[in-house]
Design goal:
The protein has 459 residues and is mainly α. Helices cover 45% and strands 5% of the residues. The protein is built from 18 helices and 6 strands. The strands form 3 sheets. A two-stranded antiparallel ribbon has the order 1-6. The protein has a two-stranded parallel ribbon with strand order 2-5. Strands 3-4 form a two-stranded antiparallel sheet. Helix 6 runs parallel beside helix 8, helix 7 crosses helix 9 and helix 10 crosses helix 11. The longest helix is centred in the first third of the chain and has 22 residues. It is globular.
Length: 459
């Protein structure tokens, strides 16, 4: 096992040369400028800083991203219209009456598409606006975090370029609606599905980043960019709050609905409508949330799925983000809101972390961010959250989420050593300065944690 030893800032720069094969894409995140700017917590979390910097470089190098380069077009033939395809639907051409082979274009407009649950039609991958948006929002998330403690223009420039390309430049911008998200192909009028609104659930990562650019007065975040993005978001909010398809997603009672409220609340913060954001999150907690957690902490609407461990963690990520947005918008008790059963977010977290992940081991890492946030907000007197992370996250306390989980114990892992993706860091601590500061040592394999959340929760 090759190990890299670093110390201090110079080492963080040197670490760019280390082989970074991927970064972690959290199901969702939200942070405020106050969480990161001039934060002594962040300043002390050196290992998490180092990994965040690597992730920021890794993902930004893949951008910028645009919907206009996709190889197939939506029914409008307008490349600026966002497009994604329903992944579990397959063409049934038995009733077409053709006497020769059909072309792809004929198949997609003449054959009826039928659902085969769990069977992913590789056709759906011909267009990847979904992956592009997810990568862009991750880039803004990591680059804003990296900027918050370095103030290095490299990161703010990455953000400016990504926003300009996706939202503002007339040649490459996305039109502000999701009419053709999760399009169902076949005869007749081809329309998107309300489930496709979930494709942009990571708006809250993007909003976190822009709020940091503003509050930190990044020179690269110009008033033109700010005005351009605001104008786009205002149009999109109108679509999100009036379009039939968007309102169907809002009415979804499970994670789809939860993420709708995350997305809308975050965007209202972006355009300065704090009262609107507060009302949005209030509507969530008094609405669909009421039926989402049972007395024992289970989430019945998620458990009743093909991958219950994943879906519990996934909705929990939305609940945590909604509590964060609500708090930032001025709610005083968002974290304490309970459902009809009397249980709340912490009970849901406690339940999710105790259920075996049988057959779903890959999804355990989806629990890391909500669990770290819960530990930060409610405390961790018996150390169970820290113990869970220490045992299962080879990067703990060096993961990006650690920067956002003020007060989360580092379990004394001041010189974390990862033995690989299945290994755990073990304390070797001589210098126990504070949350991960000191000499850094990690295995390359420990950094390779990729969460392909884009395609797993489409239905
Ligand atoms: C899109 O292009 C196809 C193929 O050229 C054409 O048949 C169709 O009418 C066009 N649709 C619109 C809305 O222009
Ligand atoms: C009709 O088209 C489908 C799709 O190309 C093809 O699988 C099928 O064999 C065709 N039928 C005939 C009779 O050629
Ligand atoms: C879609 O885009 C994402 C982000 O760039 C990428 O990781 C993924 O491999 C892409 N998927 C396909 C099928 O091209
Ligand atoms: C929950 O409510 C209690 C009692 O009002 C309060 O002391 C506590 O700080 C609240 N916790 C959170 C996380 O808001
Ligand atoms: C390191 O810090 C932890 C938690 O703050 C503490 O329990 C432990 O005793 C410290 N270890 C050393 C070697 O100082």
């Amino acid at each position: 096992m090759v190990k890299y030893s670093y110390s201090g800032l110079a080492a963080m720069v040197a670490s760019f040369a280390a082989p970074v094969l991927s970064m972690t894409s959290y199901p969702n995140e939200f942070f405020t400028p106050e969480d990161v700017l001039d934060s002594s917590w962040v300043a002390n979390a050196k290992w998490a800083q180092s990994n965040t910097i690597e992730d920021a470089h890794f993902i930004a190098a893949q951008g910028p991203w645009t919907v206009t380069t996709k190889p197939i077009l939506p029914p409008t033939n307008n490349s600026h219209d966002y497009l994604s395809l329903r992944p579990y639907f397959w063409p049934d051409c038995s009733n077409v009456g053709n006497t020769t082979e059909l072309t792809q274009a004929q198949i997609q407009t003449m054959c009826t598409y039928v659902r085969r649950d769990g069977e992913f039609n590789p056709d759906a991958r011909m267009v990847n606006d979904t992956g592009a948006f997810q990568a862009m929002s991750d880039s803004i998330f990591y680059n804003a975090l990296a900027w918050s403690f370095t103030k290095d223009a490299t990161y703010s420039t990455n953000i400016a370029t990504a926003i300009n390309t996706w939202f503002i430049n007339p040649d490459t911008l996305m039109n502000p609606q999701l009419t053709y998200a999760q399009l169902l192909r076949g005869p007749g009028v081809q329309e998107g599905s309300h489930t496709g609104v979930l494709d942009l659930k990571c708006m809250s990562k993007l909003v976190s980043g822009i709020l940091v650019m503003r509050k930190g007065q990044a020179a690269e975040w110009t008033s033109d960019l700010d005005n351009g993005l605001n104008a786009w978001v205002k149009q999109y909010i109108t679509w999100l709050t009036t379009d039939k398809m968007a309102l169907e997603e809002k009415a979804a009672t499970n994670n789809h609905g939860s993420f709708y409220f995350s997305q809308l609340g975050a965007l209202q913060l972006l355009v300065g409508d704090n009262a609107g954001a507060k009302a949005t999150i209030e509507e969530f907690f008094t609405g669909i949330y009421q039926d989402q957690i049972s007395a024992n902490g289970d989430q019945p609407l998620e458990t009743d799925r093909t991958r219950p461990y994943h879906y519990r963690a996934y909705n929990l990520a939305a609940l945590v983000v909604n509590a964060k947005i609500g708090t930032y918008a001025g709610m005083t008790d968002a974290w304490n809101r309970t459902t009809k059963s009397g249980a709340g977010i912490q009970q849901a977290c406690n339940y999710a972390m105790t259920i075996p992940a049988t057959g779903e081991e890959d999804y355990i890492k989806e629990l890391f961010t909500p669990l770290a946030a819960v530990a930060s907000v409610y405390g961790d007197p018996d150390g169970k959250y820290a113990a869970f992370l220490k045992e299962r996250d080879p990067q703990y306390p060096g993961s990006g989420y650690y920067l956002l989980a003020k007060g989360l114990s580092d379990s004394g892992l001041t010189q974390p050593t990862s033995t690989g993706s299945s290994g755990s860091p073990s304390p070797t601590g001589s210098s126990n300065a504070s949350n991960g500061a000191g000499k850094l040592e990690m295995g390359a394999v420990g950094m390779i944690v990729a969460l392909g959340a884009a395609f797993v929760s489409l239905l």
